[in-house]
From TrEMBL:
Domain of life, per lineage: Eukaryota
Native species: Oryza sativa subsp. indica
Protein name (database record): Uncharacterized protein
Length: 106
C-alpha cells in the first residue's frame, strides 16, 4: 500500500478490507500468513491512522525512515517511512496494555 494514511476516519473501513483479505499463518502449512507493507510520507496524521488500525486489531511497525528531496521541488525534502502490518493474534489489551508484574506482597 502506498500513501493510505490520510484520514483516521477511513481506517476502520480499510481495516475491514484488510481483515477480509488477510490469511493467517499456520505452523503446519508451508509459508506464513499475509504480510502487509505500507509506505507513506511521514506527515501529521499518520500516527492517528496507525492508532486506529491498532484499535482494529493490527500491529503496525515502522521498519525504516528516510529523508529524500521532493520530485516537484528538489530544494525541499520530506521524511518517508515504510511500515510492516500484521494482524494481531492476541487480545489488544494484552499487546497494547500489559499489566506489570510485581513481586510486592510476595
Amino acid at each position: 500500500m502506498s500513501d493510505v494514511f490520510y484520514d483516521p476516519d477511513d481506517m476502520p473501513a480499510m481495516a475491514d478490507t484488510l481483515h477480509g483479505l488477510w490469511r493467517d499463518g499456520d505452523s503446519d502449512s508451508d509459508g506464513g500468513g499475509t504480510v502487509g507493507w505500507a509506505a507513506s510520507e511521514a506527515r501529521d496524521g499518520v500516527q492517528d491512522c496507525i492508532d486506529v488500525l491498532r484499535e482494529q486489531g493490527f500491529e503496525v511497525v515502522e521498519v525504516d525512515r528516510v529523508t529524500r528531496p521532493l520530485l516537484r521541488d528538489p530544494e525541499q525534502a520530506a521524511d518517508f517511512a515504510v511500515y510492516r502490518l500484521f494482524r494481531r493474534t492476541t487480545s489488544p489489551s494484552i499487546v497494547s496494555n500489559p499489566t506489570p508484574i510485581t513481586t510486592a506482597g510476595c
